[in-house]
Amino acid sequence: MPSIMKTYIDSIAGSGKTFRYTESDPIGFLPDKKTLHIQARGGIYSEGPAAELEMGHRYLTIMINFFGVPSFKGLFIGVRNQMPDKAQEIKEQALQRAKELAKTY
């Protein structure tokens, strides 16, 4: 995750800004929102041996849920640099996934 994104999340994650404390649990202020995380990746982190190394989407999932957002999805575009001969195909597949996601989200 880019440091500027982490800084942004840190700056909005404050009691009274995006959530409030109650006697039992914190309550997020954004129950009527949807969030889409779009990220280009240099490798495959959604499956296989590198899946346990993925931290950006997991962190955002935790924070977005903490803010009360009920719907959080991810769209990941990966390995274009790792497979330059398939870069155009990967890009087209990602655009198609984005269009399909837009219809249902």
Question: What do these coordinates show?
Answer:
The structure is a single chain. This protein is α+β, with helices and mostly antiparallel strands and 105 residues long. It has a single domain (3-104), classed as Flavodoxin domain (Rossmann fold, 3-Layer(aba) Sandwich), CATH 3.40.50.360. The protein contains three helices and four strands; from the N terminus they run αβββαβα. It has a two-stranded antiparallel sheet with strand order 1-2. Strands 3-4 form a two-stranded parallel ribbon. It holds the Pfam family Flavodoxin_2.
In short:
This protein has 105 residues and is an alpha+beta fold. It has one domain (3-104): Rossmann fold (3-Layer(aba) Sandwich).
What's the layout of helices and strands?
Blueprint: H1 3-12, E1 19-21, E2 26-28, E3 34-41, H2 56-66, E4 71-78, H3 87-104
Parallel strand pairs: 3-4
Antiparallel strand pairs: 1-2
InterPro entries: Flavodoxin_fold (IPR003680), Flavoprotein-like_sf (IPR029039), FMN-dep_NADH:Q_OxRdtase_AzoR1 (IPR050104)
Domain Flavodoxin-like fold: 1-100
Protein name: FMN-dependent NADH-azoreductase
